[in-house]
Design a protein that fits this description.
DNA binding, Beta-Lactamase, DNA-binding transcription factor activity, two-stranded antiparallel sheet, 9 helices, single chain
């Protein structure tokens, strides 16, 4: 990748990772670039609409939401799926997510949560810890072994909590169970005090997607079976939505 492109993406990532506007001097420190270089990159990114300059510094620009909408469109994630997640959130009373595997990566494409900090700790974007998440296990269980190993070799199997599975053999055994039962459950592997359930979305076109729920562990122990049952209905409806779409079209 050309160095200028790499640096511009570093600046964009630094702004995206901040809780508020970022000054040019702060961006220079964060990216390791000279101040004059940062100003040049900021000018280009602002001109393209990826960033906006405010009195306090730079923030993400108007082009970012449109890029996300285009990403969702290309991933066939439309308003019907969003509505389905919101309905599931109200029914289950817990945070719900829609995830997918594509081109060697796992990503959370959408979520429905009542709080700024979802129970599962997930946010829309790439998930590099698929070995430790319920939705990741569902998606990994559907992959050929070679593709699964490529993913794991690229992301590693870091121990997020003491309960995270970090052994490839243990994970293989877990994924075999997921394939047999059609559901993945993880308990405190990704976050202390949290359990997650995920099921695959049926797809005639071979797309690998999953829906999941994250809820407090005590809540899961009390009504985990009921949550799983509801989630299976959500996945079936998401599959019917995908089937109804004409071939070659993508959702809104």
């Amino acid at each position: 990748m050309p160095q200028s492109v790499d640096r511009a993406l570093d600046v964009l990532d630094a702004v995206a990772g901040s809780d508020g506007p970022v000054s040019a001097k702060a961006l220079a420190r964060l990216t390791g670039c000279g101040l004059s270089t940062v100003y040049e990159l900021l000018g280009a990114l602002t001109a393209r609409g990826h960033l906006v300059r405010t009195a306090a510094g730079w923030t993400l620009g108007y082009r970012v939401p449109s890029l996300h909408r285009a990403f969702q469109r290309q991933m066939r994630l439309d308003e019907e799926v969003h509505g389905l997640l919101l309905k599931a959130r109200r029914t289950v009373g817990a945070d719900t997510y829609f995830s997918a595997y594509r081109d060697g990566e796992i990503a959370v494409l959408a979520g429905a949560s009542d709080s700024a900090a979802p129970t599962g700790g997930f946010s829309v974007g790439r998930d590099a810890d698929g070995h430790a998440t319920a939705h990741g296990k569902v998606l990994l269980s559907a992959l050929p072994r070679a593709a699964r190993l490529r993913y794991l070799s690229g992301t590693g199997m870091r121990a997020i909590t003491p309960r995270t599975i970090t052994s490839p053999d243990r994970l293989d055994a877990e994924l075999r169970r997921v394939r047999r039962q059609g559901v993945a459950v993880e308990i405190e592997e990704c976050a202390p005090g949290v359990a997650c359930v995920a099921v695959p979305v049926p797809a005639a076109d071979g797309a690998r997607t999953a829906v999941s729920v994250a809820l407090p562990l005590a809540d899961f122990e009390r009504r985990g079976d009921r949550v799983t049952e509801i989630l299976r209905h959500v996945a079936a409806e998401a599959g019917r939505l995908a089937i109804r779409r004409p071939t070659g079209t993508t959702g809104g």
